[in-house]
Write a structure and sequence with these properties.
Strand 9 and strand 10 form a beta hairpin. By secondary structure, the protein is of the alpha/beta class. Strands 6-7-8-3-9-10 form a six-stranded mixed sheet, sandwiched between helices. The protein is built from ten helices and ten strands. The protein starts with about 55 loop residues before the first strand and ends with a helix. About 30% of the residues lie in helices and about 20% in strands. The relative contact order is 0.17. The longest helix has 16 residues. Bound molecules: adenosine-5'-triphosphate and magnesium ion. Adenosine-5'-triphosphate binds next to helix 1.
Length: about 290
């Protein structure tokens, strides 16, 4: 961290390959690469936010579904254009943390900010307007609607012409162009996940949150999806992803979080977590 306070474009060059746009090559306007360009300018920083810190800051989250807390002082950050991955055992609270960050769960304590703006009190829909998109673990497509209708649904908050974004989604996931008139419910698991990610991208998010995007898909399809997610991150979108395939996900993670019982157990870069003997022993089958 530089501590400069002006962090509109941090680490953008860190991953390299910035010139490999996922826009169609014949498009002159490279500015619309699944995100708007408003950045965080003009947003006020809240008291418990590090203004020079990561783009998404979910700090000290404590809360649950009733009297019992599921999250216990859980902190998750994600940098602009980077991939942050949450792993941990079943029931650890990974999905709960995602729901809390997206505003589907009231926190007893803690805060969520994007671009220095405190969004802790906002509804999920208001967070979408602020640049968040969330692909939940289940029921993440409208099965009776066509692929293209699903993508159009993703643009419900937009008043501009979203045709170009649909084309960008088809460029990212070419199979969806072929299947655009088919009901999403008729697609394979991996193709459905592509629809779900594509629908989220239709909002031109600054932060894309994915809860187990590779659930139930083959290793080859998983690798393919991870490649596409890396491509999306390279356009400057912040990715926060929960993954059951811990090893493969940590391999591509700029930052990894191991959650246990709703609390941060280990936090480091993906490769460092993969090399950590304790993490290997307890979460990665000792390999
Ligand atoms: N809607 C709910 N109401 C009450 N309790 C819930 C609800 N959703 C989840 N829980 C409980 O919260 C805890 C954490 O669940 P969560 O779904 O966040 O775990 P997870 O880490 O995502 O697990 P998995 O790897 O199985 O997806 C579990 O004990 C679960 O039973
Ligand atoms: Mg879950």
């Amino acid at each position: 961290m530089t501590g400069s306070g002006d962090k509109t474009d941090p680490l953008r060059d860190g991953r390299g390959n910035r010139d490999r746009s996922i826009t169609k090559s014949d498009e002159a306007d490279g500015s619309e690469v699944f995100r708007d360009e408003t950045g965080s300018a003009g947003r006020e920083a809240s008291a418990n936010v590090d203004p020079a810190g990561p783009f998404l800051q979910a700090r000290n989250m404590t809360g649950g579904y009733g009297a019992v807390d599921i999250l216990n002082d859980c902190t998750i950050d994600a940098e602009k254009g980077e991939i942050s991955v949450i792993v941990g055992p079943n029931g650890a609270g990974k999905s709960t943390a995602m729901k809390a960050i997206f505003g589907m769960l009231n926190l007893r304590k803690g805060s969520v900010t994007i671009g220095g703006e405190d969004i802790t009190a906002l509804s999920p829909q208001a967070r979408v307007a602020k640049g968040m998109a969330f692909v939940p673990q289940t029921s993440n497509v409208f099965p009776s609607m066509t692929v293209e209708e699903n993508l159009e649904m993703g643009a419900f908050l937009r008043e501009d012409d979203f045709r170009k974004t649909i084309e960008q989604v088809y460029t990212l996931f070419p199979i969806l162009r072929d299947k655009r008139r088919q009901a999403a419910g008729e697609l394979s698991g991996g193709q459905r996940q592509q629809v779900a990610v594509g629908r989220a991208l239709m909002t031109l998010p600054q932060v894309l949150m994915l809860d187990e995007p590779t659930a139930g898909v083959s290793p080859i399809v998983m690798d393919e999806l991870f490649d596409r997610i890396i491509e999306v991150a390279r356009t400057g979108i912040t990715i926060l992803m929960v993954e059951q395939n811990a090893r493969q996900a940590l391999e591509i993670a700029d930052k990894g979080y191991v959650l246990v019982q709703g609390a941060n157990a280990h936090t480091d870069t993906g490769p460092a977590l993969l090399a950590d003997p304790e993490v290997r022993r307890t979460f990665l089958g000792g390999q």
